[in-house]
């Protein structure tokens, strides 16, 4: 009887080991599939995007978490930006890419101030930006920011004249290495870096940035032909203001 029991126990153990081997192989295959999707994609992918290409009931977040851990010591890392996943060169190796990069021209102060206002106050119109800055905004300033693709046209404000509204894009988050727009520095952080006067008025406050793609209650969608009009404006070199020049990101 003891020998029979031992045989049954060994048989069950063998079956368990075989199942574990198959399960491990299946998990490895799923990881390879997710890895291939991320490498092949030109744009960051969300969990939903990835899950749509995999078998049903696959735990995509768990696979992504494991891949992220696997790639932490490597030359490329798996990161998440705005709830979307992508591979990116490890930060400590970015210097190796500089020799092949074209030296960019810096954005003007006006463009940087406008970009900051859009990031923190979006959705904003041109009039909103001018009110916050206290000076008029040249069309060239917004043209340059649109050309960088860090800023996007969201819709139109439901007010007389129906001015367009602006917000930041996913490429803005990727360029500035932000997982979400909420990672922008807050009031105390900006004071600590010296970018804001420490002796601000007691009532001074900063908005909580929100880049939700859904239109706000006071916004309405753009017309279908607006994108074509925007491309035509960007191709017109005379639209750039002398103060901005032809600055690139």
Layout of secondary structure:
Elements: H1 2-40, E1 45-46, H2 47-51, H3 60-71, E2 76-81, E3 84-89, H4 109-121, H5 126-133, H6 139-148, E4 151-157, E5 164-168, H7 170-175, H8 187-192, E6 219-220, H9 226-234
Antiparallel strand pairs: 1-3, 2-3, 4-5, 4-6
Helix pairs in contact: 1-3, 4-6
Strand percentage lies at 5-15%
Shape summary: globular
Please give the largest β-sheet. Answer: 3 strands, antiparallel
Rounded to an integer, what's the Rg over CA atoms?
25 Å
- Tell me the structural class: alpha+beta
Element pattern in H and E? HEHHEEHHHEEHHEH
Number of helices: 9
Number of strands: 6
Would you tell me the overall average pLDDT?
A: 79
The unreliable regions are 231-249
Strand order of the largest sheet: 1-3-2
Give the helix proportion (percent range). 40-55%
End-to-end distance = 80 Å
Describe this structure in words.
With 249 residues, the protein is an alpha+beta fold. It has helices spanning 2-40, 47-51, 60-71, 109-121, 126-133, 139-148, 170-175, 187-192, 226-234, and strands at 45-46, 76-81, 84-89, 151-157, 164-168, 219-220. Strands 1-3-2 form a 3-stranded antiparallel β-sheet. Strands 5-4-6 form a 3-stranded antiparallel β-sheet. A hairpin with a 6-residue loop joins strand 4 (151-157) and strand 5. The N and C termini lie far apart (80 Å). The relative contact order is 0.11. Residues 231-249 have low confidence and may be disordered.
